[in-house]
């Protein structure tokens, strides 16, 4: 599917409720959650009413990334999203369990919890970003089938985006008729703080090349950056501030809305 198909899909969903954008990855640890949080904040800064569904049962990090520490309120069985200081309302699987406790859930239990997040009180939102669990297993598949995102963004480092990983993640969305909005290359390039010399710890250009081969749009690259990591750990997404990282996420958000 090309950019045009994606636009048609986004327009179609807009009329009936919030537009869902899934953020996925073939692997864990590539920065999927960091990118999802900052994209959500960037979309909010563009004037959208944005919600975040943190469905990453293996490592729910949106409460930390968005600086939300409260448990969600509920009305009857329906969860009410918790506002964050950065204008993005959150429902996270991490809010449903005590900090530090592992989620040793089997498929049906995980799916039940994820349904609760998707079926939260999201009325009035324009866009919901879903931070998917990494990989392409049953949990991901049923979540995508249930939530029916209007589009999906895939995050990869330049190196780990072997064609096989990319193909798997893209295949999951194609099988479920979710248009792939494009690939974002994260941790691409690093400027040494001592000598200023640029280097590429995870290689260079892998995601862009893979996007070309796979026929999906390449949305852009984000550098490996200590300040991005520090701000993320502190619950203050760089997209909420000023500077190159905020500009990069605004550009990505605009490209996704285009
Ligand atoms: P995933 O959701 O893919 O598992 P995370 O978003 O949790 O990955 O990121 C994994 C780790 O890498 C986190 O510590 C995060 O702060 C860090 N990280 C992500 N992107 C970058 C980047 N561009 N530069 C530096 N650190 C990053």
UniProtKB/TrEMBL annotation:
Signal sequence residues: none
Domain of life: Bacteria
UniProt KW rRNA-binding keyword: no
Keyword Hydrolase tagged: yes
MF GO annotations: ATP binding
Ligand binding (ATP): 26-33
Keywords (A to Z) from UniProt: ATP-binding, Hydrolase, Iron, Iron-sulfur, Metal-binding, Nucleotide-binding
Subunit structure as annotated in this protein's UniProt entry: Homodimer.
Purpose: Binds and transfers iron-sulfur (Fe-S) clusters to target apoproteins. Can hydrolyze ATP.
Record family assignment: Belongs to the Mrp/NBP35 ATP-binding proteins family.
Name of this chain's protein: Iron-sulfur cluster carrier protein
Annotated organism of origin: Sphingomonas arvum
Residues of the full protein shown: 55 to 312 of 319
């Amino acid at each position: 599917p090309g950019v045009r198909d994606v636009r048609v899909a986004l327009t179609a969903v807009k009329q009936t409720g919030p537009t869902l954008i899934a953020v996925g990855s073939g692997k864990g640890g590539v920065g999927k959650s960091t990118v999802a949080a900052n994209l959500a904040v960037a979309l909010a800064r563009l004037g959208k009413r944005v919600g975040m569904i943190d469905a990453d049962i293996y490592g729910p990090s949106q409460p930390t990334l968005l600086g939300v520490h409260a448990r969600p309120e509920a009305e009857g069985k329906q969860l009410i999203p918790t506002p964050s200081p950065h204008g993005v309302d959150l429902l996270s699987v991490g809010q449903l369990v005590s900090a530090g406790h592992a989620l040793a859930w089997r498929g049906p239990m995980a799916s039940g919890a994820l349904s609760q997040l998707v079926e939260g009180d999201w009325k009035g939102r324009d866009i919901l970003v879903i931070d998917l669990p990494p990989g392409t297993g049953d949990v991901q598949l049923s979540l995508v089938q249930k939530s029916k995102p209007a589009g999906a963004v895939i995050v990869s480092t330049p190196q780990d985006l072997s064609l096989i990983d990319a193909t798997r993640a893209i295949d999951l969305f194609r099988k479920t008729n979710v248009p792939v909005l494009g690939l974002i290359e994260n941790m691409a390039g690093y400027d040494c703080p001592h000598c200023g010399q640029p280097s590429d710890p995870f290689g260079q250009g892998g995601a862009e090349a893979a996007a070309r081969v796979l026929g999906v749009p390449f949305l852009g690259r984000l550098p490996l950056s200590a300040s991005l990591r520090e701000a993320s750990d502190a619950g203050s997404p760089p997209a909420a501030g000023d500077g190159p990282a905020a500009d990069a996420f605004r550009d990505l958000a605009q490209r996704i809305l285009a």
